Amino acid sequence: TIITTLQDSSQNQVGVAKTELQATEKMVEKNMGKELNVLRTYMDKEYPEKVSEYQSGLQQMARNNQELRRQIEMQKKIIDDLGKEIEVLRKHTAALREYVRHPRDLIFEDVLLQRPICTPDMEIVLNIPTEEDLPL
User: Fold this and answer.
1) Cα of 110 vs its chain's centroid, Å
2) For the ranges 15-24, 44-53, 94-103, which has the lowest average pLDDT?
């Protein structure tokens, strides 16, 4: 009797669970149907209108992005070329600095004779004319 009672109780619980499952499935199907109708309505009516609205803007944005990439590459090339030109100009400037003398030295070159400076360690050779005996 206990076994029969447990079997009957289990079958009743299984029956109740099946009934609840069927009710839940029907409710889920009903809700899914509503959501599906909402999605179909959106996809059929609203989405195409929004895509006609944004399509030209997206295409223009893509073209603008391509143009910006091209401009960036062009500017990078210009920057590299200018960097090379700056190095050449620096070399020329350094060469000119070595060549340029003080203006006073250029103007009074004949007055300000440039002679090497005599340091204490240098040997000095004096070229003083001496009296020579006249040949007889």
Assistant:
1) 60
2) 44-53
